[in-house]
Amino acid sequence: MDAKKLAGEKAIEFVKNDMIVGLGTGSTVYWAILKIGGLVKQGLRIKGVPTSIQTEQLANELGIPLVGLSSINQIDLTIDGADEANEEFELIKGGGGALLREKMVASISKRMVVVMDETKYVPNLGKFPLPVEITQFGWEMTRRQISALGCEPALRLKDNIPFITDNGNYILDCHFGEILDANKLNQTLNMIPGVVENGLFVNMADTMVIGNRNGHVDIF
Ligand code: 5RP
Predict the structure, then answer these.
(1) How many Å lie between the centroid of ligand 1 and the Cα of residue 27?
(2) Which pTM value belongs to this model?
(3) Function of this protein (predicted)?
(4) DSSP state for residue 80 in the 8-state scheme
(5) Number of helices and strands (H, E) in the chain?
(6) Alpha-carbon distances, residue 217 vs 77, 92, 188 (angstroms)
(7) Is 61 marked active-site?
């Protein structure tokens, strides 16, 4: 059983006619977006708000009408994946590098439904290194300041060169160990000049849809 597919497809239950829907990024929400494309072909009226260039391309291929943040103030529902989630509904996101747009979209969403497989639901966040999006300008300085918080930030690479986000920035993957106060760390990181955004999502997720290998889906 593909637990990601199960979770992604199940989340479609929350999509209703005439909604503006935030479309997340990654291999789990991919299955939700495919289904939304099918529903649009059958006549469902929705507008999607993509959280990455990759998702924008997928939505265009599927014929999902899109709208940008420039012309809306609120999103009815966002469906997105996560790299880790705890029982407080706090998330680590950004494994795919789309955390800034994902957080902006989530921040104006009335409801955020998170789709994931069971391996990502953890007692404490932090085994997955926290992605932090930073400016290219002065990035070594920003890295030193983040290190001083007690972690080893690693510059994300792709094909042996720095990975560049859709926004033209770098990502530092930060091993903090167990993150017991996600709210505080979120705020502390975002106070550092050079940090654009970090992958901690606090008070954003409302619903979790968790696919299990045994074919079962849990919804919290
Ligand atoms: C991208 C993300 C993704 O939602 C997260 O990495 C989960 O991805 P996947 O569903 O492929 O495991 O935050 O920035």
Answers:
(1) 7
(2) 0.97
(3) Catalyzes the reversible conversion of ribose-5-phosphate to ribulose 5-phosphate.
(4) E
(5) 6, 15
(6) 20, 21, 35
(7) no
